[in-house]
Design a protein that fits this description.
- By secondary structure, the protein is α+β, with helices and mostly antiparallel strands.
- 58% of the residues lie in helices and 16% in strands.
- It is built from twelve helices and eleven strands.
- The chain has helices at residues 10-30, 40-61, 63-80, 93-146, 150-165, 204-211, 256-320, 329-356, 359-364, 366-376, 393-414, 448-459, and strands at residues 169-175, 180-187, 196-198, 215-220, 224-235, 238-247, 381-385, 419-426, 429-436, 463-467, 475-481.
- The strands form two sheets. Strands 3-2-1-6-5-4 form a six-stranded antiparallel sheet, sandwiched between helices. A five-stranded mixed sheet has the order 7-8-9-11-10, covered by helices on one side.
- Strand 2 and strand 3 (196-198) form a beta hairpin.
Length: 488
């Protein structure tokens, strides 16, 4: 069966035909200096002129013209100027046939070389396009892996897809429950980040929202000429939004849907990661809040229950002691020892209660509680507290326990002579620094105390940094946002 699609068209044969005719014209034009072939110098100059013309033609026309013209030039000088010369009269049809065959072979070789060159250019362009696309994906994936805010990933995807796919604009939309779309990233004109727009029926975004599949439209926004491609953003099995690229002055690549979907998947991963981190932070904050509330309740129960009963018993025994007859010295001594034992037990119970939850923190606030910690420390502590403004209760508890654990570690391990505690507020953050002049060399990954405090700090969206060079003391830096975290 004849494959008509493989038969060259007249248009595809026009360039080789033009090359053949141009080469034949070259061959005939070189013969114009035959009367001068007795003058070697002029013939050499004539040859140089045609070599220059050949180079110019090959430079402009490529191998399709360069190959046959080079053969025609060599054949012409060999036939007309190098003995024995050939004649090309009316009866010398064989010489014309041979010259035509040589030029035709040159056209064939040139066509093959031109085809190879174009395939190489296409392959190189494909490799360059693929390399550019992979580099763009790698840049976005790096942002996702670093756990940056989703808004930065959105902006990067919008810029990368616009430049990579030759679009005029890229818009990333989050579908809201009220049938609107909130723009979370945009490049180009007409879209503002944070703006809400109704998802109108018949638009490309509405079609993607309805079908949950990529789509393409040759007209959008009320019939304005142009082309648009949109892909859905699916997070955890639910349709979160869509990414739209559009071009009003040209076309988009035929594989734009597939290429845009690769970036959209990274957007979905960034959103899922951010939601997981937010949920983890919220759950941590809830656990910390529940733990603190339980500690506060236990401390209150101890204070209002057991402690009060012990105090009442001690007072009752102390009141009964004078009524004991003087001759019963042993009973007096027993009562006195019992009262002393009750007082010691009461003191121990107060210390335990204070460790469970410091009552002074609830009664007097953070600054007095920190002063109490500094005063009780066996290592002299210089305390500096910034403006003593009220803070969220859970945040005060977190700071209190960080300072308490840090001072305890200094007493136990640092062999320090002095310690410093600095607390200040700055631009919506609470900054705490606890340092000492001890032996240093502390490893924050060892021991449950600092790990537990780090978990508590991170539950509020804060960060902990420890510097402890050997012989240089230890410095604990804590940063906590003053604004409440989600779920906190």
């Amino acid at each position: 069966m004849i494959r008509w699609d493989r038969i060259p068209s007249l248009q595809s044969l026009a360039a080789p035909a033009a090359s053949f005719l141009a080469s034949a014209a070259f061959f005939l034009a070189i013969a114009a200096a035959i009367p001068l072939r007795g003058d070697t110098v002029l013939i050499v100059l004539w040859c140089l002129i045609w070599v220059a013309l050949l180079i110019a033609a090959a430079w402009r026309g490529g191998p399709l013209y360069g190959f046959p013209m080079a053969i025609a030039t060599g054949l012409a000088f060999d036939s007309f100027y190098i003995p024995p010369t050939r004649s090309f009269g009316p009866s010398d049809w064989q010489n014309f046939l041979i010259a035509g065959m040589y030029i035709a072979l040159g056209v064939l070789a040139g066509a093959l070389a031109e085809l190879t060159r174009r395939k190489a250019e296409v392959a190189e362009a494909g490799r360059s396009k693929l390399a550019g696309e992979q580099a763009a994906l790698r840049r976005v994936a790096t942002l996702v892996a670093r756990g940056v805010e989703p808004s930065k990933v959105f902006s990067s995807v919008a810029l990368e897809t616009r430049d990579l796919l030759g679009a005029d604009a890229t818009t990333i939309v989050c579908f809201e429950p009220d049938a609107t779309g909130r723009i979370v990233a945009a490049t180009g004109q007409g879209a503002v980040v944070g703006e809400r727009r109704p998802v109108e029926e018949g638009t490309l975004i509405a079609e993607v929202q309805r079908s949950g599949r990529p789509g393409r439209a040759d007209q959008f926004t009320g019939g304005v000429a142009g082309v648009g491609v949109a892909t859905p953003v699916v997070v955890g099995g639910r349709l979160w939004g869509a990414t739209l690229i559009s071009s009003r002055h040209g076309s988009l690549p035929p594989d734009a849907e597939r290429r845009l979907a690769e970036f959209t998947e990274l957007v979905a991963i960034a959103i899922a990661n951010a939601e997981d981190r937010a949920e983890l932070k919220a759950s941590r904050a809830r656990i910390v809040a529940a733990t603190d509330e339980s500690r506060r309740q236990i401390e209150r129960d101890l204070h209002d229950g057991v402690q009060q009963r012990l105090v009442s018993l001690a007072l009752a025994l102390r009141a009964a002691e004078p009524g004991v007859p003087s001759e019963q010295t042993e009973l007096r001594l027993t009562l006195s020892q019992t009262v002393a034992g009750l007082n010691e037990a009461l003191s121990e119970l107060r210390e335990i209660s204070r460790g469970i939850h410091p009552a002074i923190l609830s009664q007097g606030g953070l600054a007095p509680a920190l002063r109490t910690l500094a005063r009780r420390s066996r290592v002299p502590v210089e305390l500096t507290v910034g403006p003593e403004e009220p803070l969220p209760a859970q945040l005060e508890v977190a700071v209190y326990y960080v300072v308490a654990e840090a001072l305890t570690n200094i007493v136990k391990h640092a062999r320090a002579e002095s310690a410093w505690v600095d607390l200040e507020r700055s631009e919506g953050e609470l900054r705490l620094r606890v340092r000492d002049d001890g032996v240093g060399g502390a490893d924050p990954t060892r021991g449950s105390g600092l790990i537990g405090l780090s978990d508590r700090v991170q539950a509020f969206g804060g960060a902990v940094a420890v510097e402890s060079p050997p012989g240089g003391g230890t410095c604990l830096d804590v940063t906590l946002p003053i604004a409440p975290t989600p779920g906190g």
